[in-house]
Design a protein that fits this description.
Layout: H1 2-15, H2 28-50, H3 60-77, H4 80-95, H5 101-124, H6 130-142, H7 147-157, H8 164-176, H9 181-201, H10 217-229, H11 232-235, H12 238-250, H13 254-267, H14 272-281, H15 286-295, H16 304-312
Helix pairs in contact: 1-2, 1-3, 2-3, 3-4, 3-5, 4-5, 5-6, 6-7, 7-9, 9-10, 12-13, 12-14, 14-15
Subcellular location: Nucleus
Keywords: Nucleus
Protein name: Protein NRDE2 homolog
């Protein structure tokens, strides 16, 4: 029912006439006409962008919207393979102008739509994982700051028992960019794997698991944190330091955790949230932390003496 209504809406868009409320199944003739219209519109739009004197930024949103409608229309009427073939055609055409920053920026929302459609189809039907993995890899190589793509990538890779390919990909990206996102998601991927391994090791005796526990994950996560905070962006990122301190606290090593807190203050002395975390993790050091805040001229909402009096009452 919902798919039929979507086909009706997409067909109406192609007809460019007044919208008629949905009354039932769209005829095969109207679907065929709409497909031809979308095909011609896409060809015209790509031809306009290939012109040397065209303002590419002017019709970027138009092309993105057109590709989204056309691929969804093909998916609903012909299937996933037809929609994917359109995306490949778009990537080939726009990829011919890699030196044009406008086209390079234009590819990002189209690659996002491609990945989203594959994910949607995999939820509804049995479909190989590799096309989605390849789509995400190609998109992340071009747009390593896109958080949606990283989340989708580590989500599907967390289901794999072979971490070497994932690690090699993260290593290749972090070597070629100064962005912090690849480091953060590389850390998250290893933490997810560590959590999975720990859940297996805690399993009831006698159960059979396909996952083989790995060793050295804790040291690898520490190494990733250390490499990340050595970068220019990472050294002054409070989020990265908070994650590192939390990880060290979760390991139960209080002294090393405190040392990490003081390292964080050397790089982000202005980040009040670091002091708040430290008060939670190291309650015995409350007065020392408050003194540090006063030294850095960070406001304390309530003097500790007044708080103690209120608690006594």
């Amino acid at each position: 029912m919902l798919e039929s209504r979507a086909i009706h809406i997409l067909t109406s868009l192609a007809e460019r006439g007044p919208y008629v409320p949905y009354t039932g199944q769209v005829s095969s003739m109207n679907i065929l006409k709409a497909r031809k219209t979308y095909e011609h519109l896409l060809q015209d739009c790509l031809s306009e962008r290939s012109g040397s004197n065209q303002d590419h930024n002017g019709n970027s949103s138009h092309l993105v919207g057109l590709v989204g409608c056309y691929t969804l229309f093909q998916y609903l009427t012909l299937g996933i393979d037809s929609a994917v073939s359109i995306y490949r055609h778009i990537f080939e055409k726009l990829g011919e102008k890699l030196g044009d920053q406008g086209d390079d920026t234009l590819l990002e929302p189209i690659m996002l739509m491609h990945a989203s459609l594959l994910q949607y189809h995999m939820k509804k039907s049995v479909y190989p994982l590799n096309p989605l993995r390849q789509a995400l890899l190609e998109a992340l190589k071009r747009y390593p700051s896109n958080q949606y793509l990283w989340r989708a990538y580590i989500r599907i890779q967390s289901k794999s028992h072979h971490a070497s390919k994932t690690r090699r990909f993260f290593d290749s990206v972090t070597r070629t960019t100064k962005l912090l996102e690849p480091w953060l998601f590389a850390i998250q991927a290893e933490q997810m794997r560590k959590k999975l391994v720990e859940s297996v090791q805690r399993g009831a005796t006698g159960d059979v698991y396909s996952t083989i526990p790995e060793t050295g994950l804790t040291n690898r996560i520490k190494a990733l944190f250390e490499h990340a905070i050595e970068t220019e962006n990472g050294a002054h990122c409070p989020l990265l330091w908070r994650l590192y301190i939390y990880f060290m606290v979760s390991l139960g090593n209080k002294e090393k955790s405190k040392g990490m807190f003081y390292r964080a203050l050397q790089n982000c002395p202005w980040a009040k949230v670091l002091y708040m975390d430290a008060i939670e993790y190291f309650p015995d050091e409350l007065q020392e932390i408050l003194d540090l805040m006063a030294e850095k001229e960070l406001r304390v909402r309530l003097p500790i003496e007044e708080l103690e009096l209120l608690l006594e009452d």
